[in-house]
Amino acid sequence: MKCATVAIIGRPSSGKSTLLNTICEMKVSITARTPQTTRNAIRGIYTDERGQLIFTDTPGYHLSDKEMNKRLQETAVKSLEECDVILYMLDAKRPAGEEELAIAAILSKTKTPVVCCLNKSDILKENEIEEGKQFLHDHLPDSTVLIASAKKDEGVDEILIELFKLAPEGELLYPVDSYTDQPVEFRVSEIIREKAINLVTDELPHSIFVEIPDIEYKEAENTVWIRAFINVERDSQKGIVVGKGGENIKKIRQGSEKEIRLIFPGKKLRLDLQVKAKDKWRNNGIVLDKILR
Ligand SMILES: Nc1nc2c(ncn2[C@@H]2O[C@H](COP(=O)(O)OP(=O)(O)OP(=O)(O)O)[C@@H](O)[C@H]2O)c(=O)[nH]1
Ligand SMILES: [Mg+2]
User: Fold this and answer.
1) Sign (positive/negative) of CA torsion 259, 262, 263, 266?
2) Domains of the chain by residue range
3) Which CATH architecture best describes the domain 184-291?
4) What is the CA(18)–ligand 1 centre distance, in A?
5) Going by C-beta distance under 8 Å and a sequence separation of 6 or more, which residues neighbour residue 45?
6) What's the pLDDT at 131?
7) Which of the four pLDDT bands, split at 50, 70 and 90, describes residue 293?
8) Does the structure show a pLDDT above 80 at 205?
9) What CA–CA distance (Å, rounded) separates 265 from 245?
10) Is 59 in contact with 159 (CB distance < 8 Å)?
11) 145-176 residue pLDDT tens
12) Are 89 and 9 in contact (CB under 8 A)?
């Protein structure tokens, strides 16, 4: 059997989390059209007759001096140090800029094999593919280049073939039916965050974090009872999340419940959502320590 750890790296919004979900056939990592959605190193596990690939989805590599962004960048870079293979995702729809150059520079120095994937093939024009290939040829000449659409599940089997080729021999590290190792509270909080950011994305893409103060299974009622706080950065932002007559919060709850139920099959669910303001939490080290660990 083969077994490898694979770090997925790339600029924000290149489709890293979408790819992980397509490979695992499960919502392992949340996605959104706004950049900088992923905030943690998120493990997703894929197993078949060839062996096991243990993926780490990472926060999009973004150059910024802000405290939170610096921590996200550290998480991404640290994942590179701990893996057998690196999967570098590029969105060739956007021309390679400073960030792409910074990632390529890091990857060109590593001894770990790199597989590159020009993602979003479903919307790429021929010249964009050529430019992407040229960029990789110039900066990472030894790496394999594949073209795929994570969203449409095209070219994804070829990515798996390439990763297994590079994977070392080894025993499986997780049971064959595992697809993630995230604690339940974290998964629930991420599902709620996804629903919230996708609904108010133009107004507050990055101002939200979700806390789960209580999660409890009441056996007599066969009910999982969850209390969650959607935190924004200012009191004035609370109304945006709640929406007119509570319509946004209702949509967030309904969308979240649908996915949270998949984590607790056969059980009833009570989800109590509240919106709170935590002043300037993105500069608050205690909050960051808690949510970015
Ligand atoms: N057309 C197209 N869109 C895609 C594809 N893969 C991802 N997307 C879209 O790109 C956006 C970003 O996708 P994510 O998977 O959240 O990107 P990410 O790289 O994880 O982003 P961060 O977590 O912010 O670093 C979403 O709107 C996806 O639907 C693809 O193959 N084709
Ligand atoms: Mg992501």
Assistant:
1) positive
2) 2-166, 184-291
3) 2-Layer Sandwich (3.30)
4) 6
5) 24, 52, 53, 54, 55, 174, 178, 179, 180, 181
6) 97
7) confident
8) no
9) 31
10) no
11) 999 999 999 999 999 999 999 999 999 999 99
12) yes
Give the per-residue pLDDT at 116. Answer: 98
Average pLDDT, the chain: 96
- Does domain 2-166 fall into CATH 3.20.20.30? no
Residue 58, classified by CB atoms within 10 Å of its CB into exposed (0-12), middle (13-18) or buried (19+), is: buried
Q: How far is the CA of 33 from the centre of ligand 1 (A)?
A: 6
Exposed/middle/buried for residue 47 (C-beta within 10 Å: 0-12, 13-18, 19+): buried
Helix segments in the chain, DSSP class H: 16-24, 67-81, 98-109, 126-139, 156-166, 184-199, 235-242, 247-263, 285-291
Choice among 64-68, 140-144, 222-226, 257-261 with the minimum mean pLDDT = 64-68
Q: Supply the residue whose CA is at minimum distance from atom 13 of ligand 1.
A: 15
pLDDT attached to residue 201? 77
**Residues with Cβ within 6 A of ligand 1?**
10, 12-18, 31-33, 35-38, 59-60, 119-120, 122-123, 149-151
> Tokens at residue 281, please?
């939490």
Structure tokens at 238: 């609370």
Are domains 2-166 and 184-291 of this chain identical in fold? no
Reference 73, options 86, 87, 62, 89; nearest CA is 62
- The full length of the chain comes to 293
Question: Does pLDDT of 217 surpass 80?
Answer: yes
> How many angstroms separate the alpha carbon of residue 120 from the centre of ligand 2?
14
Known binding residue 223? Answer is no
